[in-house]
Amino acid sequence: MLTVGAGLAVTALAMGRQSLAGRPVQVKMTHYPVPKDNGWYGYVQAANSLADTSPSVDESYGEARRLQGLTEVVKANSKAIAVFNGAVAKECFSPLPEAPDGPIPLYAPLRNLSRLMVLVGRDYEGRAQYEDAFRTYGDIVKFANDLCRGGVLTQRLTGDAVRYMALHEVRIALDQGHFDARALQALVPRLLAPRVPLADTLAWHWAYEKALLRYAVAEEAEKPTHEVLRLPKGVTMEQAMAAYERATAALIQHAALPYWQAVRVKAPKGPLGMKHVGTFGELYRKVRVAEASDEASVRGTLLVVALELYRLRQGAYPESLDALVPDYLPEMPLDPFAGKAFRYRRTDDNFRLYSVGQNMKDDGGVEPKPGKAGTGDLVFR
User: Fold this and answer.
1) Is the pLDDT of residue 275 over 80?
2) In a 3-state reduction of DSSP, which class is residue 353?
3) Which end of the chain is more exposed for a tag (fewer CB within 10 A), N or C?
């Protein structure tokens, strides 16, 4: 078996002859210009500059959320923070890994870098510098978006996890009243910034998989093990890859659908008999659910921010979300699990806001029970 750093494994590529039929299809790659001064390399440098502190960044992040006693960890990592701040101000595009061992060793440091920046935001909160705190959380959201610009599916999942981390901090700060109008206004542009479509990530992922398969073929030719690739007699690697590319193209079409529509359309499978752990199957399903949950989190947080801005200016929350457009939001964010507006109702001195969540049913704003993932609603207030 050939294990690769993107978190995938090429096992037996067993192709049934009937899967080879079909017209040739080429996966189309959307062109993204690679910046001359690419912020990606700044992120890598910052991640590799994390200081060895006690407690560590990871330990400080994992403790109960506290806003004091973080100054030493922040000071010890001043170099990494400065490099991150320089990188986040730039355009970014992540190159695909060139070697089969891939970028996976880098993912953990990148996650730790985002945790460090969360600690920076908490430190600002503890000193009541709310605008700086929210700007920092917004920068982490931009960092998460940048992780999705290029790279394979597992890198995109890392970006989703980083974005969730930042939005979680924002919602806690909002619930605790650690904000003012300037802080909220600093965050809005980051939440409105679009992400690279999942279909583009799938195309990049295919480019990497194709290079990886060719590497596997060369390795097998040099040192036959019969463990990496097994093709039926008379089936060439080119035929097998053409079938794989047709299936990838169909999957990209499926990925272009909004989640609430995509779940009603059966996702295409890989060519019959292909036992390849990668673009198809569980990883794709995991990405689709994570993407919808992540997008619901972004949009729900954006709505909470807009509602708080409305209250600060008008003295009370609105009766309807429609009151937020166009003065507070350019358009109404839709629940990705429903294709409709988020559920909202004003209470005496607060409000209830939620997405119907993965089960796509309105459970009245009831959150999932512990250990019951995929049930209940995603509640934002």
Assistant:
1) no
2) strand
3) N
